[in-house]
Amino acid sequence: MLILIVDDEVHVARSIERILRRDGYDVRTARSGPEALRLLDGIDLLLTDIQMAGMTGLELVAEVKRLHPALRCCVMSADAGAEGMESTSPLVDARIGKPFTHQALLALVRGDGGLRYRAVS
Questions:
Q1: pTM for this structure?
Q2: Other C-beta atoms lying within 10 Å of the C-beta of residue 115
Q3: CA 43 to CA 61: how far, in whole Å?
Q4: Were 36 and a residue from 6, 32, 48, 71 both cysteine, which residue would form a disulfide, CB within 3.0 to 4.6 Å?
Q5: CA–CA separation, 11 vs 118, rounded Å?
Q6: Among 78, 71, 117, CA closest to 97
Q7: Cβ neighbours, 10 Å, residue 85
Q8: Is 63:6 a contact under the CB 8 Å cutoff?
Q9: Could you give the C-alpha distances from 86 to 3, 59, 76, 91, in angstroms and in order?
């Protein structure tokens, strides 16, 4: 499985990348929505932060779903009670609140535990 992580905070993206690589996943990272759109070929899962400068994660998901309707798109946010988590777009397949455990991240990626449309900690 090839996962694209999108986060404008480099250290966050790198941490997630390390966790997923240790579990055997192939990973790409991007620092912005426009950069992510250039890296979509072959991606099986998009994991994006919601709050990013320029193009938000929800705007990115909307564009990705327009281009690749079947691509699984998950969002993450440190602001679990605000715009991102409570009013997540129906285009989003799953969401996770930051900070999250390694186990919660891996469950999200695997699609375990009925994580559709609920925050995971």
A1: 0.86
A2: 19
A3: 13
A4: 6
A5: 25
A6: 78
A7: 21
A8: no
A9: 24, 16, 12, 14
Q: Are 4 and 29 in contact (CB under 8 A)?
A: yes
Are 3 and 26 spatial neighbours (Cβ–Cβ below 8 Å)?
yes
Cis omega before residue 34 (within 30°)? Answer: no
Digit-coded pLDDT (tens) for 9-24? 999 999 999 999 999 9
Question: What amino acid is encoded at 39 in this protein?
Answer: L
Residues 74-107 pLDDT 10s: 999 886 554 444 446 788 888 888 888 889 899 9
Let me know: does 49 contact 57? Beta carbons within 8 Å.
yes
Query: What SS3 class is residue 85?
Result: helix
Contact predicate 7/52, CB 8 Å: yes
